[in-house]
Amino acid sequence: MAKKNSKSLPALCALGLLAASPAAFADPSPALDRVSIWLGGSYLNTDAHLKADSDDLSTGRLDLGSGHESVARARLDLLLFDTQGFTFDFYRLSRSQTQTLTEQFNFQGVPFDLNARVRGKFDFDIGSAAYHWWFGSGSDVFGIGLGAAYYRAKLGLSGSATADGQTYEASAKWDEDAVAPMVTLAYKHAFSDSLRFYVNASGVKKNGGSLSGHIYDGRIGVEWFPFHNLGLGAEYGKTEISLDHKRSGYDANLDLDLDGPSLFARLRF
Questions:
Q1: Are 160 and 172 in contact (CB under 8 A)?
Q2: Residue 262: partners with Cβ closer than 8 Å, 6 or more residues away
Q3: pTM of the prediction?
Q4: Is 109 in a helix, a strand, or coil?
Q5: How many CA atoms, within 13 angstroms, populate the side-chain half-sphere of residue 3?
Q6: What's the 3-state SS for 186-255?
Q7: Which of 168, 188, 201, 243 has CA atoms 20 to 30 A from the CA of 76?
Q8: Once rounded to an integer, what is the mean pLDDT over residues 15-33?
C-alpha cells in the first residue's frame, strides 16, 4: 500500500497544479497590463495667481504669469490578481515672472512697493500613490481607487520694499509640503491589443495645517502599440490646484490652472 501511495502522490500534485494554473496565470482584461511604464512630458498652458491677506491688510491678487510650460512626467502602473492595480505618478512644475506692481503687495509681512519691479518664482512638486480595484469584463473595465498624494510648494518674491520711509531690496518666501488623501475614478477600453482608450479623474483635498487646499485632475487619452511591448501614449489633461498657506496673522493662496497635451513612451509587460 505504501508503495502505491508514493506513486500516486506526484500524480495528484501534478493534477493540482494543472487545475490551479488557469487561475494563477489567467490573462487580465486586454485594456490592462501587468506592468505599465509611462515616460514623457506635458506641454501645459499655465495660469498662476497669488493672493495674500494679513489681519490688517488685504493686498489683492498678484499675477504670477501665464503661458506654456514643458513639464516632465513619469508614471508606473502595476496589476495584481487581474483586478488589483497600483499607480505611482510624479511631475514637477516651475515658473518665474518679473513684473511691475500696479499696487502695493504685502507678502509674508514684507510690503512690496507700488511700481516696483518684482520677480515671483514658484516650484510645485506632486507625487501620488493610488490603489485601484478594476471591475468589468472583456474590453471594458472601470476602476475606483483610494490613495495619497504628496505635494510640495515653494514660492518666493523679490523686489523693492519700503520700511520707515526707506526703500530697500527685499525678498520673502515660503516652502511647505503636505500629504493628502486622494480619490480616483477611471475607465479603459481596448479596441484591440494595440489600440486603447482611457479616461481618468482624481481629486485631492486637505483641510487644516500650514499647507491645505485641493487638487483636481482629469485626463483623456489613447495608447497605441505598433510593437507588443513598446508604444506611445497621448493624452489631454486639465488640472486645478488651489493651495492655502497659513501662518499667525497671515494667509496666502496660490491658484494654478493647467491644461494641455502630453506624450509618453509606453512600455508594457
A1: no
A2: 40, 41, 42, 43, 73, 219, 221, 233, 234, 235, 236, 237
A3: 0.82
A4: coil
A5: 0
A6: EEEEECCCCEEEEEEEEEEEECCCCEEEEEEEEEEEEEECCCCCEEEEEEEEEEEEEEEEEECCEEEEEE
A7: 243
A8: 59
- C-alpha cell belonging to residue 121: 518664482
β-bridge mates for residue 169, sequence order? 160
On the CB side of 145, CA atoms within 13 Å amount to: 29
Name which of 144, 148, 171 is nearest 160 in CA terms: 171
- Specify the pLDDT at position 36: 97
Q: Residue 253: count other Cβ atoms within 10 Å of its Cβ.
A: 16
What is the distance between the alpha carbons of residues 241 and 218, in angstroms, rounded to a whole number? 12
**Dist. CA 194–CA 227, nearest whole Å:** 8
Q: Classify residue 168 as exposed, middle or buried by CB count within 10 Å of its CB (0-12, 13-18, 19+).
A: exposed
Report the first-to-last Cα separation within the chain, whole angstroms: 48
Residue corresponding to grid cell 511604464: 37
Q: Which pLDDT belongs to residue 65?
A: 77
What pLDDT score does 180 carry? 95
- Return the DSSP state at 82: T
**Distance between CA atoms of residues 184 and 116, nearest Å:** 44
Q: What top-level class would CATH report for the domain 2-268?
A: mainly beta
> Does residue 239 have a pLDDT over 90?
yes
Strand segments (E) across 82-116: 84-100, 105-107, 110-112
What φ, ψ does residue 115 adopt, rounded to 5°?
70, 10
Cell of 234: 497621448
Collapsing DSSP to helix, strand or coil, 59 comes out as strand
DSSP class of 17: H
How far apart are alpha carbons 58 and 46 in whole angstroms?
A: 25
Q: Which residue has the cell 483635498?
A: 205
